[in-house]
Amino acid sequence: MVEYLGEADVRAALRWDELIAAMEQALAAFSTGRALQPVRTMLTVEEGQRYVGLMPAVAQEAMGLKVFSLYPVNAGTGVPTVMALVLLLRTDTGEPLAVMDGRLITEMRTAAVSAAVTNRLAAPDSRVLALLGSGVQARAHLEALAHVRAFGEVRVWSRTPAHAQRFAAEHGARAMDAEAAVRGADVVVTATAAVEPILRGAWLKPGAHVNAIGAPLPTWRELDDEAMAKVLVVDSREAVLHESGDVILSGAPIYAEAGEIFAGTKPAPVGATTVFKSVGLAVEDIAAAKLVFDRRSERQ
After folding, report:
1. CB 253 within 8 A of CB 276
2. d(C-alpha 115, C-alpha 85), whole Å
3. Which residues are CB-neighbours of 64 under 8 A, at least 6 positions away?
4. Mean pLDDT of the chain
5. Are residues 51 and 62 in the same domain?
6. pLDDT tens digit string along 120-177?
7. 244-253: b or e for each residue (b if 16 or more CB lie within 10 Å)?
8. Count: domains in the chain
9. Is 43 left (phi over 0), alpha (psi -120 to 50) or beta?
10. pTM above 0.90, yes or no
11. How confident is the model at residue 289 (pLDDT cuts 50, 70, 90)?
12. How far is Cα 71 from Cα 93, in angstroms, rounded to an integer?
């Protein structure tokens, strides 16, 4: 029997420090050719509203497939805009190991990747964090980034001011407009459903680091051209040139993949103003799923 692991099982198994380290290892393997994956397959059900995607990957430790739905139409309904299932397989025999809920895996691995990159690119004395967006990913990034930097001030902005105010009250942050939130911030996260830029490069202080995780489609953007002209690091060159409107429409040159920096084949651009554009990779999902499976097996 193939075991099904629900969201509660995933939450019980994943710990930020372990997950951040696993994401660094997965991206290093990807960028050095030790893991295989194609660009995700996306099926448009309704333009701008409903999409279905498939993401397979093979690594040394595990292989598998994530199937997910991206439904911006669900925003404000109480139903998540991203839902997923991950099928985990053995690499030696191909046997299925488990099927598990992928919504939380997607949420946590995305923030863990940003944390791993932030740990390499952000100034060691970073103290001010700006979150553009106040949803699931803003909360996950707040948790994950706290494991790599000690922030003394957290600022938040949302297109819906009431949402920002609620987030601020729940997490000890300060709600403010986007420009005020970004100016002087050491680390910035853009985690929105924006289709037009909500972050201006002119607002960024020298040496700031941006984790840009929204705008997952070729025609959508979160960052303007001036922001994208900073030192650009991506999770996958092939993927961002196929999927990311921020990269495609700006024509920004790519300095490195994050995995190249993790593997030591490209130096970290110390002191530079940096942007990490993340579209999310199947190798991240499979590495997180393997971590869940292993931790659950240890407890049984």
Report:
1. no
2. 24
3. 56, 57, 86, 87, 88, 89, 282, 285, 286, 289
4. 96
5. yes
6. 999 999 999 999 999 999 999 999 999 999 999 999 999 999 999 999 999 999 999 9
7. bbbbbbbebe
8. 2
9. beta
10. yes
11. very high
12. 35
Kindly state the tokens that stand for 255: 């300095």
The enclosing domain of 61 has a CATH number of: 3.30.1780.10
Residues 271, 142 share a domain: yes
What is the DSSP secondary-structure string of 235-300?
A: S-HHHHHHH-HHHHHHTPPP-EEHHHHHHTSS---TTS-EEEE----HHHHHHHHHHHHHHHHHH-
The amino acid sitting at 37 is Q
Are 46 and 153 in a shared domain?
Answer: no
Structural domain that includes position 94 = 3-105+283-299
Find the distance separating the first CA and the last CA of the chain, reported in whole Å.
16
Same domain, 8 and 21: yes
Whose CA is closest to 163, among 186, 138, 141? 138
pLDDT at residue 101, as a whole number: 95
pLDDT at residue 71 is higher than 80: yes
- Give Cα 296 distance to the centre of its chain: 24
Alpha carbon distances (Å) from 120 to 93, 113, 233, 262: 37, 11, 11, 8
Q: What is the pLDDT of residues 211-224, one digit of tens each?
A: 999 998 999 999 99
Q: Are 231 and 268 in contact (CB under 8 A)?
A: no
CATH of residue 167? 3.40.50.720
The pair of three-digit structure tokens given for residue 160, joined into one six-digit string:
């819906």
